[in-house]
Design goal:
Elements: H1 5-13, E1 22-25, H2 28-34, E2 42-47, E3 60-64, H3 66-76, E4 80-81, E5 91-92, E6 96-100, E7 104-115, E8 120-126, H4 133-139, E9 144-149, H5 157-166, H6 174-193, E10 196-207, E11 212-214, E12 218-221, H7 230-233, H8 243-250, E13 254-257, E14 262-266, H9 269-281, E15 288-291, H10 298-309, E16 316-323, H11 328-342, E17 348-354, H12 357-365, E18 373-375, H13 379-393
Length: 394
C-alpha cells in the first residue's frame, strides 16, 4: 500500500522529522486562498500521485508570485501526468501540495528499507540527492552509504555519526551535524512503528538557515502489518489504484495488472514469475501477475477468474498450479465452479502438478468443458499452447 507525499510527511513529522510548511488543495481557488499561510513569495506546486519522477514529468513547479502560482496550479491540476513509473497512460492529478520555497544548500538521499540478504533493516544514504538511486547504484555505487541495523540493538549512535560524516554534513557546522542524528533516528523509528517496507527521502536537504528537512517523502507499507494500523489504512486513496488490484486485495489475492493478453493464475510468487518469463520466451506477454496463495479455495479461485476476465485485453487464461498445500482437486473444482458463476467464454489452458493431480485431471475430464478447458502436462507445453491460442484470438 502506498500513500501520497503530503500524507507521508504528516506521519514522519510526528517523529520529529522536519518538513516544509505546506497545504493541500483540490482546486485552483483553494491554492490561491491558502497562499497567505506561507511566508515569502516563492511557493512550490507539487502534483500528488502514487508515482515517482513527478518533477521530470512536469508535475513539480516553482512559482514566484501569485500570478505564477495560479498558472502552475492551473497547468498541473487535472493534467494526465506521465512519469517512468506511471506508464504511457499516466495518472490524472486531482490533488496538489503547495509548499514554501526553500533556500537549499545541498540535496542528499536517505532511505530505510528491508534488506532480505541480511534479514535486517538497512539505512541507505548518498550525496547524490534528487537523482534516481538506481542510477546512482549502477554508475557510481561507491557513493551509496549503507548501515545495516542489528534487530536486537537497533540504530546505534556510531552509525548515525558515520552516515553524517559520509554525507559531508560536518562542513555545514555543529548545528546541522547534531540535527542529523535526530533526523535519521526519527525516520528509523517511523519505519518500525508504522509498519513500513520502504521509507525514502529524496531529496533530504540542508537549508541556508541550518536546518535539515525532508523535501520529499515516499512511504509504502507491509500489507501483513496493516491490520495493526487502521489509521494508515484510512489514508488509502482508491482512486489512485487500479480497480482490479483493489478488488483482488479484498479477496487476499496478490494481483498486479500488466499489459499483455494471457491472463495468469498461479500459486506462489516464484512460480508466477517463472510463468510470466516463459510466456515472454514463447513470444507473448502476461496480462497480469496473480498469486492465489497457499490457502486457495474454490471461492478464491472463482474471484480470481472474475478479476482476470474483467480485463478486455485477456483472450486466453493460463493456470499453472503446483499442488502442495493447495490440492490440485480443489483448484480443479474451483475452475469448474468459476466457469458456471462467471459464464467464462475465454479459453483456459491448465497445468496441474502435485497433490491429487490425477484426481484433478479426472474432475476436469468429467466436467464437460473439454472445448474450453484444455489440460496440458508440463509448464513449457502449457505456456506454448496458451501463447498459440492467444495469438489466434488476437
Amino acid at each position: 500500500m502506498k500513500i501520497h507525499e503530503y500524507q507521508a510527511k504528516g506521519i514522519i513529522s510526528k517523529y520529529g522529522v522536519n518538513v516544509p510548511q505546506g497545504y493541500v488543495c483540490k482546486t485552483v481557488e483553494d491554492v490561491l486562498k491558502g497562499a497567505k499561510s506561507l511566508s515569502g513569495d516563492v511557493r512550490v506546486v507539487k502534483a500528488q500521485i502514487h508515482a515517482g519522477g513527478r518533477g521530470k514529468g512536469g508535475g513539480v513547479k516553482v512559482s514566484k508570485g501569485m500570478e505564477a502560482l495560479e498558472k502552475n496550479a492551473t497547468d498541473i491540476l487535472g493534467m494526465q501526468l506521465v512519469t517512468h513509473q506511471t506508464g504511457p497512460e499516466g495518472q490524472l492529478v486531482k490533488t496538489l501540495l503547495i509548499e514554501e520555497g526553500m533556500d537549499i544548500k545541498t540535496e542528499l538521499y536517505f532511505s530505510v528499507l528491508v534488506d532480505r540478504a541480511t534479514q535486517s533493516v538497512v539505512l541507505l544514504a548518498s550525496t547524490e540527492g534528487g537523482m534516481d538511486i538506481e542510477e546512482v547504484a549502477a554508475k557510481t555505487p561507491e557513493k551509496i552509504l549503507k548501515e545495516v541495523i542489528n534487530p536486537i540493538y537497533g540504530l546505534r549512535p556510531f552509525q548515525t555519526t558515520r552516515l553524517a560524516y559520509g554525507l559531508g554534513l560536518d562542513q555545514f557546522g555543529k548545528k546541522v551535524f547534531r540535527q542529523a542524528h535526530g533526523f535519521f533516528n526519527g525516520l528509523y523509528e517511523a519505519f518500525l512503528a508504522e509498519g513500513c517496507d520502504m521509507l525514502e527521502i529524496n531529496p533530504m536537504i540542508v537549508t541556508g538557515d541550518e536546518k535539515i528537512l525532508a523535501l520529499d517523502c515516499k512511504m509504502s507499507f507491509d500489507s501483513n502489518a496493516l491490520f495493526k494500523h487502521p489509521d494508515t489504512v484510512a489514508l488509502r486513496d482508491l482512486d489512485e489504484e487500479n480497480a482490479a488490484e483493489v478488488e483482488a486485495s479484498n479477496h487476499d489475492l496478490n494481483f498486479i495488472k500488466l499489459d499483455g493478453t494471457v491472463g495468469c493464475m498461479v500459486n506462489g510468487a516464484g512460480l508466477a514469475m517463472a510463468t510470466m518469463d516463459i510466456l515472454d520466451a514463447y513470444g507473448s506477454n502476461p496480462a497480469n501477475f496473480l498469486d492465489v496463495g497457499g490457502t486457495a479455495d474454490e471461492e478464491r479461485v472463482t474471484n480470481a477468474f472474475r478479476i482476470i476476465t474483467q480485463d478486455p485485453s485477456v483472450n486466453c487464461i493460463l493456470i499453472n498450479i503446483f499442488g502442495g498445500i493447495v490440492r490440485c482437486d480443489v483448484i480443479a473444482n474451483g475452475v469448474i465452479e468459476a466457469f458456471k458463476k462467471v459464464s467464462l467464454e475465454i479459453p483456459v489452458v491448465i497445468r496441474l502438478e502435485g497433490t491429487n493431480a490425477d484426481l484433478a485431471k479426472k474432475i476436469i475430464e468429467e466436467s464437460g468443458l473439454g472445448d474450453k478447458l484444455l489440460m496440458v502436462s508440463g509448464l513449457g507445453p502449457a505456456a506454448r499452447k496458451a501463447v498459440e491460442i492467444s495469438s489466434k484470438q488476437a
